[in-house]
Amino acid sequence: MRIADDITALLAQAHDGALPQRVRALHLPPADPPDGKAGEFAALELESGAIGLCFLLLDDTLTSIAALAEAVRGVDAREMVGWWADAQAAAASPARAALGYAAVNALTRGVFDRAGFVPGRANNTIGGLDPQPGEAIGMVGLFPPLVRQVVERGARLTVLELRADLAGERDGYRVTLQREALAPCTQVLSTSTVLLNHSFDGVRAACPSARRFVLVGPGAGCPPDPLFAAGVSAIAGSWIADPAALVRAITTGAPWGSSVIKSLLTPEGYPGWATLLRRASGG
Predict the structure, then answer these.
(1) H or E segment to which residue 92 belongs
(2) Which of the four pLDDT bands, split at 50, 70 and 90, describes residue 36?
C-alpha cells in the first residue's frame, strides 16, 4: 500500500462514526507581505480548534488557493482528506491537495489533543542527525541553513531537488535531480513535502543504506505509525503551542516566534495510534 493509503486508513479508524469535523476557517498569508516574500504556509482551522498547516509553494497552490477559502468553510475535514490521498486528483488540483493534507494534519492534531499527547522537543535543527566527517549524507529539498550545518561537520552531502536550475556541484556539496544518487547515504534529512506531493514512497525506497531517515517541516503532522513502519527514524515538526498567535502571524506575514515549538517525534517516544485512540475515547 502507498503511505497515503495507510495514513487515510488510520484517520478513518479514528473518526469512524464520529460527528463531522468541519472547517471553521482557512487562514492565508497576506497577498502583499511586509517583507516582500510570499508566505509559505496556510492554516486550516477546524471547529474543534485543531489546526493543520499546508505548504503553499508547490506548483500553483499559492495563486489558486485563495479562491477556495470560502468554499471550504463548513466542509467536513474527513471528506477533504480524499483531495490529497487520491494522487490523480491531487495532481489535477495542487491547491485542493494542499488543503486535503492540511485536513490530515488538523485531524491528527485533534487526536493528539484528545489523547493528551505532546511530542518531545527537538534538540537541534537537523532532526537529531549526527553527520560525521566523510559520511555520505542525503538531503531531500535544498535547505541552505541546514546545508551549512552538515557541510561544516565534514560530511559529504548530496541534495535531491526538483528544480533543474539548482542542479550541479556546489561548495562542499552537490545538488542532483536523480533519486538514485541517495543510495549510498547513511543518514537522510527530507522535507515533509514528500508526503504532500506523494513522492515519499519513491524517495524512501531510493535510500536503502539510510540507517537514519528524518522528516522535517511544519507539514509533518500526520499519523506517524506508517512512517515509522517505512523506516522513518524521527519526525521533526512544528508543534502549534499558541493557535491564535500562529493565525495572527500567518495572516499578517509576521514571524511565527513562540507560537510554535520545534518538536521531535521518534518511535521510542510515541505510544502508537491504537493507544492514542484508547486515551482519546477515555479508555
Answers:
(1) helix 87-92
(2) low
Cell of 42: 496556510
Given CATH 3.40.50.11590, say whether it is the number of domain 121-229: yes
The domain segmentation of the chain, as residue ranges, is 3-118+241-255, 121-229
How big is the CA angle at 115 (ends 239 and 227), to the nearest 5 degrees? 60
Each residue's pLDDT tens digit, 179-238: 999 999 999 999 999 999 999 999 999 999 999 999 999 989 999 999 999 999 999 999
Length of the chain equals 283
The fold adopted by the segment(s) 3-118+241-255 is: Enolase-like; domain 1 (3.30.390)
For residue 263, give Cα distances in angstroms to 19, 31, 266: 30, 29, 10
Joined together, the cell numbers standing for residue 86 give 487520491
| Per-residue exposure over 110-141, b if at least 16 CB sit within 10 Å of its own CB, e if not | bbbebbebebeebeeebbbbebeeebbbbbbb
Yes or no: say if 25 and 45 are a contact pair by the CB < 8 Å rule.
Answer: yes
Task: Tell me which amino acid residue 190 is.
Answer: S
Q: Parallel, antiparallel, or unpaired for β 136-140 and 187-191?
A: parallel
